[in-house]
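Section: protein folds

Sequence with per-residue tokens
===
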Amino acid sequence: MLVMYGIRNCDTVRKARKLLDEKKATYTFHDYKKEGADEQALKDACAQFGWEAVLNKRGTTWRKLDDETKVGVTDQESAISLMMQETSLIKRPLVTGGKQLLLGFDAVLWDELLEKGELY
């Protein structure tokens, strides 16, 4: 079963959920704000995409961190530790449980994967 990790009111997550709903895809939604981060899902995402891609440094949460915290993120372990504490730092959405792991939302790619039956 697909699991989409994200934050309910994130615009990108809303677009991704809308596409899955329109395609009648079966999935569960894991809201980081209510349920926290899933450490194993983060480890899997970091293993596939690299921790630098999973850690969202472009958002407000990263910019608000103090310099000492930012400098302390030097490897996967420190990145995951910080993302577990500050779930808004995780690139969204993250989709697990299918034929492939997805990070971020690309409407064209997702639509192709759904049409071809390659998402789940």
The chain has one domain: 2-116. Strands lie at 2-6, 27-31, 94-96, 102-103.
